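Handout, section B. The chain below has 422 residues.
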Amino acid sequence: MSGADIRRAAADLLTLTLDSRRTLDDAMLTSQIFNTLEGSDRGFARAIASSALRHLGWIDTALAPLLSRPLPAVTAPIRALLRTGVTQLWLMDTPPHAAVGETVEAAKGWPEARSGGAFLNAVLRRADRERPDFTRMSPLGIWPDWLKDILVSAYGTEEAEALARAQLTEPTLYLTPKSDAETVAAETGGTAVPGGGVAVPTGSVEDMDGFASGDWWVQDLAAMIPSHLLAPEPGDTIVDLCAAPGGKTLQLAAAGASVTAVDRSAPRLRLLKENLQRTGLKATIVTANADEWRPDEPVMKILLDAPCSALGTLRRHPEGAWIKREAEVARFPAAQARLLDAAIDMLAPGGTLIYCVCTPLPAEGVDIVEAALATGRVQRLPVTPNDVPGFSHAITSSGDVLTRPGGESDHDTFYIARLKKA
């Protein structure tokens, strides 16, 4: 395929993601233009789109002075080509003749963008001459205002900026071994890290040694903590609520526990079934609303990874900041409180419950747990440094865990609380 085809595919991914409010992964599955590409061409198109999404606030701010009309007034295909063009110029060190020429050529072969070719050419040539200094911009500028405001309100400017700077770096790819981390590290060329995970070079997961044989699965290092805190043992009966896509279910099953994985999304559960088959692990899968379903009898161990705003995974899914709306984020706490209440119903007296969410927002994390503690139905089981190797710095003053990326911490954000039923 030509360079223009690659640029058109990258722009189509941006259009599908931002205008249709889809994840980038979903856009890659549905973009007809992208799916005509193969091999490294697909990788380059995805890299352009991903970089544009990772820096989108900065890009739009720097583009505005170069335009004769506001960016939202520009047609969607031209807007996407502008963003992908300047991403190549400003962030990817693509030679200007390729970044400008191939992006303009992409417009010529795209009926919806053909009429804007001259405008696109003029703006990109000016963008090449008048390059912004992103080092002088606040890292908070990569986000929409509503997200910046709620994170600054929750943590202050310094902590919010640290979260934003973490988003600007490509995250490490981590694997969870089914059994031995050193063996998986050796066969994948990765490095075993504290907590039991393996850090590996980024690449095609399906092509890595051990994938087909089910020796491991992809899972962020911080996402491994909730299952570890539940201390699964052979013979344990464990309920994993809101389980899909299933990394934690696999962890629990690999420890020898009898796991029931509950989720309302049949498509997401299909991925869990595929991973169970690939790894040779077993679990009972139930398609149901976790706040309505109940086990035959109360159980001693429950893991609830509640649906949330997922703002803790923006390093891996930077589009989340732009495809979510503030009103949508505000609706999560009510659902999380219902799910936690239901999970406590399912828990036997003296049983252990792990509540976790992949977001830094207190309204979805510690506030939900404190409300449950206030009912007297559960008490907190504080986490100790021995419980979380490599994450002692993430233990809060209350004894919960809040992992945040930044500095030497290369992982997603998770809030995790360990509770015991009275």
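Note. DSSP finds 16 helices and twelve strands in the chain. Compare this with the example in section A.
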